[in-house]
Write a structure and sequence with these properties.
Chains A, B: The chain crosses the membrane at residues 376-393. Two copies of one chain form a homodimer. By secondary structure, chain A is an alpha/beta fold. The first copy, chain A, has 13 helices and 24 strands. Chains A and B meet through strand 4, strand 5, helix 5 and helix 12 of A and strand 4, strand 5, helix 5 and helix 12 of B.
Chain lengths: 427, 427
């Protein structure tokens, strides 16, 4: 790994997501050596991935170079690497670029799509948890429309224009809304020789309401917004299989579609050496105490999606979202400094700042702790908050310009098949 | 292909580059059916590819959806396809999505990198003629610096940080200048644990001056600009081989580098059926008369890089650049309408609007027909002209914002390895 020895204790952070970056910032100019490891050289602003998939934003606008975050930090080392195994006894990491010892280890690896063991859906469905995945989805959507032009078989053509989005959480709702807007505003102009009105956008939710983590008013309003955009919302239906065209469910309902997006579950990213069955909670999360220490370890911590801190308010851990990860990163950063300085630790207390989801132009739902609202104002709040949390001044300006342009012009100009996906999948 | 029959004559345009798009615009609302075929669903603004490679711009900002260009045009059909063969006798195209008849055919396929048969350089060197190629180069540059951190072998580390750019035309000069600015402004901050001063940027030119198509004063100024940025300019040297590390030349000079960019030649993109040896000029271009008709055919035309119209001023055809392609597209568009209306044709006359190249901030060279200038003003002219010719209001604004940001901050934030390249090449 080629990291020099230091007289300061070495803290290794695995993962440059919301948690890892918030933590790293707190360790700047402290008496520690920090090694941040990520398999990408950039931080991904995951809440806007669906806009990359739907051609509203460039991928580069929601990514930020990790090295730039760390510029000017002393005793910081970034390594582009994949962690293969943790040797908890030897306090050592094995990676694809060599081994490295740690004094303190922070696991902030986040989460990945959970297909619940369904290999067919994993092979033929699309996930949307990373920038390459989002770009693949963008390519596939556009490739399917190009292909729809070529067939005289009406059933095949419809399937190429149909979408099934599995999972009614924020990702599924936001993607369904964006696709509905594309169907209305862009497809008829881009494909005058195709009857794009026949395109169907289906949002399939396993439980009895979409956005189940939000308030009931938010759920019902979001559903009404989606329906006003022409999205078919299906509830109490579970998708059970998909062969690339036919979607089976646990009811009589079935769909034919060439694009199935799986947004119905996430699981913690596991690392060998820290994945004993008795250790893992539901979804593969690591149980941690209120100081983020993983059960059984004093020197290993976990934050964000990968950590499960069971509290009275959150008996199954905090929601797997940006806010808890950032707050945990900040708290752990302060505590690690306290550990080095031999001061008592401060337990983590989560401040719920609320949740929100957007459906389309002028349509969003916001749940604040004391106040819930929906509609135009909620939509502006959603945009403001997302711009605020986006890292980097340039990214904020470029995203803002794109949004203004898209809003005024009812357009999304990044509908580009930069890397075709169908051939890749066929291999 | 599923293109309906029409009472109007059918014009097929192969290629949505500068020539093809300019031509299509002239055919809007005329009594013709137009089918535009491209292997990408977007137009590429090739002059700025080097900025994508060097992290200064997002790829999406220099690409524009072809369907959006054609929005609202009646009797226009776009097909995402690769042409496999032209059957000139049957007036038919064979493509990967089926066959199609034409009344008039316009070949506007542009050019691709010419490795002059050197398979090693083709396998291990990087080209920069398309957006995926430019993104691959971006990834490789960043991956090499990440790898340079990991080795203790000083020679290997130097090779990972060294660049050889073969070809002193605008592409090579602009890329070398951009890399020199990255070396100076970004690398020391991004890689504090690496002695990035040792990185060498070598521009290798086969003839006795760089920018040989421009004036002598432009060449010598550009060379001085490059040297002030720390670029090593090598003249009268031809690169003969490359194995991924070692670069051989036809002199005693040799280089060790992990990144070799081949910008030393282009050739017309050939299509089977129109590639008889007796037909092709140097570089595989198709000889055309002053009405863009390919020798021996009344109904087949060629414009842009793929066409060679021999005139007194340009005995080997016009320069393979955007300007001639656009002017030819416009002229041919008007002539095709005249053909349909049975009016006499207007021969093509090229208006030389000048050429320019940029080296770095405040450093560019401009040759106008009556006036040549270099330096800060030339640089502003270069930026203005490129913004002006960029298609799309959003693209212009986003590129402008990026340039202002990069200028003020001495930064390039798109230094992201979205799709790693080394593994791809290893396959």
């Amino acid at each position: 790994m080629n990291i020099p020895q230091s007289s300061f204790p070495r803290i290794i952070i695995i993962g440059g997501g919301f948690g890892g970056i918030a933590l790293a910032k707190k360790l700047c100019k402290k008496e520690v050596q920090v090694v941040l490891i990520d398999k990408n050289n950039y931080h991904t602003f995951q809440p806007l991935l669906y806009q990359v998939s739907t051609g509203g934003l460039e991928p580069d606008s929601i990514a930020y170079p990790i090295r730039k975050v760390l510029q000017g930090y002393s005793n910081f080392y970034f390594r582009l690497a994949e962690v293969e195994r943790i040797d908890t006894n030897g306090r050592m990491l094995q990676t694809n670029i060599g081994e490295i010892q740690y004094d303190y280890l922070v696991v902030a690896t986040g989460s990945e799509t959970n297909f619940f063991g369904n290999k067919n859906i994993e092979a033929m469905g699309m996930a949307m948890k990373s920038i390459p995945q989002s770009l693949n989805l963008r390519s596939l959507i556009l490739e399917n429309f190009e292909q729809a032009l070529l067939t005289d078989d009406l059933h095949e053509r419809d399937a190429l224009m149909n979408f099934v989005i599995v999972g009614g959480g924020p990702t599924g709702v936001e993607l369904a809304g964006a696709l509905a807007e594309i169907k209305k505003g862009i497809l008829p102009k881009d494909y005058p020789d195709l009857d794009t009105r026949r395109a169907q956008i289906n949002l399939v939710q396993g439980s009895d309401r979409i956005l189940p983590a939000m308030s009931e008013i938010a759920s019902s309003k979001a559903e009404r917004f989606l329906e006003s955009l022409g999205v078919n919302v299906w509830k109490d239906i579970r998708v059970t299989d998909y062969d690339g065209v036919h979607v089976s469910t646990d009811t009589d309902t079935s769909f034919d579609c060439a694009t199935l997006v799986w947004a119905a579950g996430v699981q913690a990213v596991r690392i060998e050496g820290l994945d004993a069955k008795e250790l893992l909670c539901r979804g593969g999360r690591l149980p941690v105490n209120q100081f983020h220490q993983v059960d059984g370890f004093k020197e290993i911590f976990a934050i964000g999606d990968v950590a499960q801190m069971e509290t009275e308010a959150f008996p199954h851990g905090h929601p797997m979202m940006a806010q808890p990860a950032m707050q945990q990163g900040e708290n752990l950063g302060e505590n690690l400094v306290r550990i080095v300085e031999n001061k008592p630790l401060k337990p983590f207390v989560y401040k719920d700042k609320g949740t929100m989801a957007t459906v389309g132009r002028n349509k969003a739902v916001v749940d604040l702790p004391r106040f819930k609202f929906q509609g135009v104002f909620a939509w502006f709040v959603w945009m403001f908050v997302h711009l605020y949390f986006l890292i980097g001044f340039r990214n904020r300006v470029v995203v803002f310009i794109n949004w203004v342009y898209n809003y005024i012009r009812f357009d999304r100009e990044a509908r580009l098949i930069i890397r075709p996906f169908k051939k890749v999948r066929a291999k």
